[in-house]
Amino acid sequence: MKKPVRVTITGAAGQISYSLIFRIASGSMLGPDQPVILQLLEITPALPALNGVVMELNDCAFPLVAGVIATDKLEEAFDKTDYALLVGARPRGPGMERKDLLTANGGIFGPQGKALSDYASRDVKVLVVGNPANTNALIAASAAKSLDPKQFTAMVRLDHNRALSQLASKTGTHSNDIEKMIIWGNHSSTQYPDITNTLVNGKAAKGLVDQNWIETDFIPTVQQRGAAIIKARGASSAASAASAAVDHMRDWALGTNGKWVSMGIPSDGSYGIKPGIVYGYPVTVKDGKYEIVQGLEVDAFSRGKMDATEQELREERAAIEELLK
Ligand SMILES: NC(=O)C1=CN([C@@H]2O[C@H](COP(=O)(O)OP(=O)(O)OC[C@H]3O[C@@H](n4cnc5c(N)ncnc54)[C@H](O)[C@@H]3O)[C@@H](O)[C@H]2O)C=CC1
Ligand SMILES: O=C([O-])CC(=O)C(=O)O
C-alpha cells in the first residue's frame, strides 16, 4: 500500500459532496491502491450535517480511508493537503446565470486561496467547482501568494462529458468512441463546445453531423445543460458534477496517456487568449503536469465563440478586480 495522501473537500455537507466524498473514498479518483485522508470543510452551522456524512462514511468501512477530519477551520482543512476540491459555495436557482453568484461566492475563495498558500503541500493540486468556477479559481490563485497559479484549475469537465454524451447519442456511438472534444472558455452559457477536431471511431465528427445541428442543437444544449437539470430536478447537477470532479482530478494526478481533456486553467496567451483569466483549454497530462494542446487551426466561427467567452471572463474579472489585490 502507498503512503496516504490528503484530500480536502469543501462544502462537504452539500449535495455534490454527498456523491463526491464516497467516490473518492472508494478509490475512483486516485486509484485502488492509494489510501486517502479526507479533510472535510464546512461552515459552522453545517457541522451537524457534516457529522452525519462522516457517520455514513465510517459505516462504509472503506479500505482506502486512512483518516477523516471534519472541521470549520481553514487551517485544519488545508493542512498539508495534496488535493483540494473547492466545492463549497452557493448554487444557483432557476432563472439565474452562474455569474449572478459572483458576489455571494467570490468572498469564499480569497481566504481559501490564502489558507492553501499557508498550509497546503507545496505541490497541491486545486480544483474549483463552486460557481462561477473560472473566476473563483482566479480569485483563489491570486490570494495564494506562495503557490504557482497553475496549481489552480476550474472545472469544465462536466461540460466536456456532457458534450461527449450529446455527440455519442447523435452519432449512435458510445462516448468511449469519441476523442479530441474541447470546451473552450467559461463554465457558463458562453462556453464553446468545439467538435472541429473531434473524432468518432477515428472519423471526423464534422463529417457525421451537419453544421445546423452543431449550431442550433449541440452547442446550445451543452451550454444550457446546467439550467435544464435545475429545471428538471429542482436542484443543480450533483452526481454528474461529482463524477466530473473525479475525472478532472484523476486525469491531472494520473495522466491522460495522450488523450485530450478540457480543464479551466490560467490563460497564457495560447490561442490569442491573453493572461489574466482562467479559461477552458484542451490539455493532455503527463507526470502530474498539464499542457495545452497546441497548433490547432481556429476558423472564423470558432474564433467568434472563443472571443465571446473570453469577453465574459474579462467582465467577470472586472467585477471582482478588488478581490485580486
Ligand atoms: N463547475 C461545475 O461544473 C459545477 C459547479 N457547481 C457549483 O458547485 C457549488 C456547490 O453545489 P452543491 O453541492 O449543489 O451546493 P449545496 O448548497 O448543496 O452545498 C454547498 C455546501 O457548501 C457549504 N459552504 C458554503 N460556504 C462555505 C465555505 N465558505 N466553506 C465551506 N463550505 C461552505 C454549504 O454549507 C453547503 O453545505 C455551487 O456553487 C454550484 O453552482 C455545481 C455543478 C457543476
Ligand atoms: O448550472 C448550474 O448552476 C450548476 C452547474 O454549474 C452545472 O450543472 O453545470
TrEMBL record:
Residues annotated as the enzyme's active site: 187
Q: What Enzyme Commission number(s) apply to this enzyme?
A: 1.1.1.37
The UniProt annotation places substrate binding at 92, 98, 131, 162
Position of the signal peptide? none
Q: Which domain of life is it from?
A: Bacteria
Q: Name one GO molecular function term.
A: L-malate dehydrogenase (NAD+) activity
Catalysed reactions, semicolon-separated = (S)-malate + NAD(+) = oxaloacetate + NADH + H(+)
GO annotation, biological process? malate metabolic process; tricarboxylic acid cycle
Q: Where is the Lactate/malate dehydrogenase N-terminal domain?
A: 5-148
Q: Which UniProt keywords apply?
A: NAD, Oxidoreductase, Tricarboxylic acid cycle
Stretches assigned to the Lactate/malate dehydrogenase C-terminal domain: 157-321
Residues that, per the record, bind NAD(+): 11-17, 105, 112, 129-131
**Purpose of the protein:** Catalyzes the reversible oxidation of malate to oxaloacetate.
The UniProt family comment states: Belongs to the LDH/MDH superfamily. MDH type 2 family.
What is the name of the protein in this document?
A: Malate dehydrogenase
Q: Which organism is it from?
A: Stenotrophobium rhamnosiphilum
